[in-house]
Amino acid sequence: MKNIQDIPALFHSSETGTLIQRCLMCDSFLLDGMEYMIEKSISNYPGMNTKDIIHEFALCVDCATSIMNEYSEESAQKMAQYFTDHMDFSRLNKFKTEEFFEADLWVAKCIVKKTPIEECSNYQMSAHCIGDQIIFDKSPLMISGEATDEVADLLSNKTTDLLNKFRDDHFPPPEDLSPLFKEKDFVLL
Ligand SMILES: [Zn+2]
Q1: 89 C-alpha to center of ligand 1: Å?
Q2: Residue 154 in contact with residue 78, Cβ under 8 Å?
Q3: Which of 14, 56, 74, 174 has the fewest CB atoms within 10 Å, measured from its CB?
């Protein structure tokens, strides 16, 4: 299948420059055929030609599902409704029809706001992978901080606490940076 390709450099580990090998939560080895998601969260400094990786991880489908299952019912419904109402897959569908499988282009605009990636001060990217392959379908996609802020505002306190706990367990902010971390800046797609 043409829409299944080697995972592009964009979704490699920025630390090692190679494939992310293990699930963040259960530590399963991903590269012999496991199904998983890669998420990267990036701060961009438009005009300065520089960016910082805020989070970067892979979650196997079982672990991702177990987190989603802990979302409150109300939050899950509101999130699903937001995505139905606001996510526009027409660009990705066009690329798919044209068999244009370049991850950089798929993530070039926010899936909700259509903001070009270079104009987003922060954004998340996600990719659906199996082993060392990426699947081009509803992702890879990029969602701007502007849109994830809107999603974060829909979430119940319980779900926000859950996501913040997940973030703090896995990515404790450096002490001196913590005032910069907003209460609600983390959404798992
Ligand atoms: Zn896992």
Answers
A1: 28
A2: yes
A3: 174
In this structure, how many other beta carbons lie within 10 angstroms of the beta carbon of residue 41?
Answer: 23
- Type of residue at 21: Q
Closest of 77, 67, 76, 78 to residue 162, by C-alpha: 67
Q: pLDDT tens, 27-72?
A: 999 999 999 999 999 998 877 778 888 889 999 999 999 988 888 8
The per-residue pLDDT for range 158-173, each reduced to its tens digit, is 888 888 888 888 877 6
- What pLDDT does 11 receive? 97
Ligand 1 geometric centre to CA of 30 (Å): 9
69 CA from centroid of ligand 1 (Å): 14
Number of CB atoms found within 10 A of residue 10's CB: 17
Distance, in Å, from the CA atom of 105 to the CA atom of 75, rounded to the nearest integer, reads 31
Rounded to the nearest angstrom, the distance between the alpha carbon of 33 and the centre of ligand 1 is 13
